[in-house]
């Protein structure tokens, strides 16, 4: 697989369309294939991007596949952005009984048509949907990536930047666990440049309220939701970065939702950990040495995810 490839996108509302636009803006794909049950929307998004093609750095084919999910089987990567975001306006877990069920409407059809690429799933609850994708497809779990806390980690860098005044590009700090309110900031491994947060506080004369910073990262998306009832720019760029890492085999190290295997005693769910992303999907999972308090938060977030999985399973 080279640096350019074919990418399918399921769900062409805010996030799915923005992922497509980012990939085209980066000249990262040779072909995009769109599927959405809203046939008018699907056709409109494809036509709009074809109208814009003269402004992108590289020409790419954009194909409206409507509800013909089988047409995505020859893609290198499929992005799942099919969800019920309106349900989560007031309850972070409200999509739990809705969006994971969507997977059964398209995943088996795509697999039966011969898909052998990598899934990147954005739909929420991200960790439950990613697990359901693995169950419905039977694929190697490392070829099913949930965008997970990649977005939340950007929110954490935003919060630390606000607290310090430093460029967020200089901040390296990650949220781990659930893509949801039970996630936690891995402050034990956070840095500004090559300095720990403790060193920054001591040398720059700032005092960082870690609880407030973690709260801002965890709930920051609802500031956006309150104003426009969706998030789009940040999550689409996080997802596009993951897609590009697969297409170009960059070995990007970023937090994504992957199948957990005996991490601090937890197995069998999808949750976000530092992962190496390349042509094979998740090519390695790193387990950071967490503080005692972070281990407790890891167990709590995994219990929350497991509870959502159980609730979804009971609803079938």
Q: Care to describe what's here?
A:
With 316 residues, the protein is α/β, with parallel strands linked by helices. 42% of the residues lie in helices and 18% in strands. It contains nine helices and 14 strands. The chain has helices at 14-25, 39-51, 99-112, 126-137, 150-164, 197-204, 210-228, 233-248, 292-315, and strands at residues 6-10, 31-35, 61-64, 77-80, 118-121, 144-146, 171-172, 175-176, 184-185, 191-192, 195-196, 252-259, 270-278, 281-285. The strands form four sheets. Strands 3-2-1-4-5-6 form a six-stranded parallel sheet, sandwiched between helices. Strand 1, helix 1 and strand 2 (31-35) form a beta-alpha-beta unit. Helix 1 (14-25) packs across helix 8, helix 3 (99-112) packs parallel to helix 4 and helix 5 packs across helix 7. The longest helix has 24 residues, at 292-315. The protein is globular, with a radius of gyration of 19 Å.
